[in-house]
Design brief:
disordered N terminus; 5-stranded mixed sheet; alpha/beta
Length: 163
């Protein structure tokens, strides 16, 4: 468990997969991405990030979304509460690694993107419509640039930046 030493209460739990070994600093990268997302959204509050394996995410996906199989990231927004707890974000190692390899991205950058994406969902951002997606994707690109990671949507737009 990695407690946050910033203004928000953020915990990173490594439960499975090879997180912490590949990349070796995955908990720190996740923490930095969560802090950056909260700052960009001007949304203080606490959250937990679970770095798990595909089996754990498949179980969560089935239990909470009635969908079979793992997914890369899940967000569980908390109901309004006086403690300012925003919710939980969970990532699946094997799925994230496969996606990063398939997209020609560094796993570190993909991890940070998915954490930022999940945290933005906790604070109310969504991508159900094209307008919502444009806003959320723009904010994600800004967050990642601040972390030294490339724009995750550049390839979709035909930009040719290094991942």
């Amino acid at each position: 468990m990695t407690p946050d030493d910033g203004n928000s209460d953020i915990e990173v739990l490594v439960e499975g997969g090879e997180w912490g070994r590949i990349p070796p600093d995955a908990p720190t990268l996740a923490l930095r991405a969560a802090r950056a997302a909260l700052a960009a959204a001007n949304a203080p509050g606490g959250l937990a990030i679970l770095l798990a394996d595909d089996a754990r995410l498949a179980a969560l996906n089935s239990a909470f979304r009635a969908k079979a199989g793992p997914t890369n990231v899940l967000s569980f927004p908390a109901p309004a509460n006086p403690e300012g707890w925003l919710g939980d974000v969970a990532l699946a190692f094997e799925t994230c690694r496969r996606e990063a390899e398939a997209q020609g991205k560094r796993l570190e950058h993909h991890l940070q993107h998915l954490v930022a994406h999940g945290v933005l969902h906790l604070v109310g951002y969504d991508h159900e419509t094209d307008a919502e997606a444009s806003v959320m994707e723009g904010l994600e690109a800004k967050i990642l640039a601040g972390l030294g990671a490339p724009d995750p949507y550049a390839a979709e737009r035909g930009d040719h930046g290094q991942s």
